[in-house]
Amino acid sequence: MTTSPLPEPVRQAVAHVARLAAGPPLDRTLRVTCSFHPDRFAGPGTTESVIERLVASGSYVSQFVTGTSNGGLTAYRGGDRFRWESALFGGMYDDADPDLRPKYGALNHRRRGTGASPRFGSAHLRLAEHTLERSTFCFPDSFDEPADFGVAASCDLADRADRSGRDLLDDYVEAQVHGHLDLRADVEAVVLDPSFRGTAVEEAARELPCPVEWHDGFVAQLADIEQHPDYRGPEIVQLARRYAHDGVLDPRTVGEVASLGIHEPQAVKQLWHYTARFGTPEARSRPPARD
Predict the structure, then answer these.
(1) CA dist., res. 212 & res. 209, Å (int)
(2) Is the pTM of this model over 0.85?
(3) What Pfam families does the entry give (predicted)?
(4) Contact 225, 283 (CB under 8 A)
(5) Whole-angstrom Cα distance, residue 89 to residue 24?
């Protein structure tokens, strides 16, 4: 498809990272995925869900716009995210429209149906090929102050990630997708967990201007979770025991726990980590990596 010229801050930010990149061009059949929890509240003081917010806005925006995050929330002037982006992108966004700032996802170089970074949610947007041209990449996650970077024309980070020995939830190549992210023009599909079939999540998703698809699902057996109390802590295992239905946890159940509002957000996040980490055949076949 024909794309419009990139806004100048975006063009310069991507060019700045390109000077740090190394490796061959990316395989153009690879896709960036942006993971999220579709059923969670879209922000403080609202009962609107994330999927409903996507329907209303027609776009996917960064935490600089939303004020919410599935990771660390430091997206404000002087915050860690602001400083990191200022350093990596040559200060191009310091005074720019916040909507031009990068949206965070991961490069799905392993072609996982559940997306490249399920740590951040059970659903994901699969971005169109042309967004690779305005994407930058790093490994490990930007939270870890990485020194290795890539762009579509030059990126060897997949090999680095595969050799890293990191845990399944931490071995993704982070992607930063710059500029406005339009659900109609820039997204191939929204991919949901089957636990949301027949729910308000599916109903809302059908109103999005992109196709709805389903992955194979996260279904974590309580017995598997109980074998790894050190992964996120015995208190989180106890939480899993309390809420597992018929000995399993899935994304819909974890979302119901979140909606109760009686547990610390960090505990709910770690309950999701257990569900994602032990909820697929690939994950169950690999023991957690030791730090």
Answers:
(1) 9
(2) yes
(3) DUF3626
(4) no
(5) 21
